[in-house]
């Protein structure tokens, strides 16, 4: 315990804490914060008191009478503090990197050898002091609300605890985002995302957003009173999540859901702050910003991305101050953590689908199953892909080191295997009576539904094959670009051209010559339909249709030629990736790539 306390004190002994404390506790800033908070909370309380006195709506009156004036006003204060935290906590969390870079002292911070976690923990500690100032400013209003009803003290303490957790989660998310993005973009993104979740969570909806927003907990007494007065609402339970697992009935309240979601978010953010971005320092650079390659300096200024490259190099230098054990196990922490996190999300998605399967028809269930599979594949493609500057960065796996690009490819292939295994949880018993296996009775699961499910089952390998092609396109474009997002967008556009343009061309040619037989145009149309993904989809599912266009596609599309063409594209992309990596290794490292 003593050693843990020493480590904690060492982590908080940070220059960022000293600087932020001087800024937060300055007289005029404290006065401004107190004035702003008092103004906001005072107006909010005045509005709620006015509504409680002069409102004529019966539902509103019943809510006020059921809660009591004290808890009703406490909800207003807690909601107001949460809204203020959503805006001002991310704003106060900014300035760690961009402020130092603009002041031209970031190189001195790096040269001091301070570890990234120690640098971050100073800001986290300062944010807790700032949150204490917010509560101190709101303390008179809290006492005023509790004076009406001290019996709700437990609800107030729980809400205050959730607000403290919420403030720390906002801080962690902002700091983790600022590692990869400019801090202005990171702060705006966090405020926008969490602000929307906070507003949506104020509506009577199922408590899914309770994982990221405490507003659901603040308003849970309101929804309980409305349920008691009006019966079960059409939107379901708004205060807790109820489900059964192996005969056990599990109920998670909004507070428990928020704490679980906050714990998961905190673990992810701390892991990101621990390992940082993938290093882009493949050379022994002497100054910041020398990550550019031959030819980049000859480009026009708008295409050189000097500011972004300089920031990326500076962050790489900053994370050189990590401890040796993190560098040694960086690949394990990064890839195993990312792989485990995505796998956990996929398991929860498929498990949630299975838990709520009784509210879906058989074919609807399988369509949702395919949608989850496709979403998981797209997220995996974007997550396990390095850009031009980090493709050859060696990552430590204990005694071994592997390039980041190779590790990304292996992790993606393993993730694809996991998704395939999860996506086949439903059809694995397809040879048994379907209504008995899936829990659907004969009234809900007809044999036509079962037949559609069996045919749709064969779409899983088709979508997986297309995902591999999409990943190869993304990998090749990422070797040509500094930004992974641009590579992903370019690969997406190219994939659409390869998948759907042949179908459009083949169908247009068919419509031109449908009333007049022209052999050459007919051959071109058949070739286009054979290599189009839409034609492969039709032949895989074999839909029953009476449309003349659909019948033409069914008659002229061939799975063999479709897989042959796209397999050839995949093989060409793999060859291009191989030679692009060799060229990149020769430019960056001055040697041939032998990995």
List keywords for this structure.
about 600 residues; 4 strands; about 5% strand; mainly alpha; two-stranded antiparallel ribbon
Which SSEs are present, and which pair or pack?
Blueprint lengths: L1 H11 L2 H10 L2 H28 L3 H10 L1 H25 L4 H5 L3 H6 L4 H31 L6 H28 L2 H18 L14 H16 L9 E6 L2 E6 H22 L25 H4 L1 H13 L5 H5 L1 H26 L6 H22 L10 E4 L2 E4 H20 L10 H5 L8 H11 L1 H20 L5 H30 L5 H13 L1 H9 L6 H9 L2 H30 L7
Antiparallel strand pairs: 1-2, 3-4
Helix pairs in contact: 2-8, 3-5, 3-8, 4-5, 4-11, 5-8, 5-9, 5-10, 8-9, 9-10, 9-12, 12-16, 16-17, 16-18, 17-18, 17-20, 17-21, 21-22, 21-26, 22-23
Q: Order of strands across the widest beta sheet?
A: 1-2
Q: What Rg, in angstroms, do the CA atoms define?
A: 29 Å
Which structural category do the helix and sheet elements fall into? mainly alpha
Largest sheet: 2 strands, antiparallel
* Helical amount: over 70%
Query: Treating each run of at least 4 consecutive H or I residues as one helix, how many helices?
Result: 26
Strand segment count: 4
Order of helices and strands: HHHHHHHHHHHEEHHHHHHEEHHHHHHHHH
State the separation between the terminal residues, measured CA to CA: 46 Å
What proportion strand? under 5%
Shape: globular
Mean pLDDT rating: 76
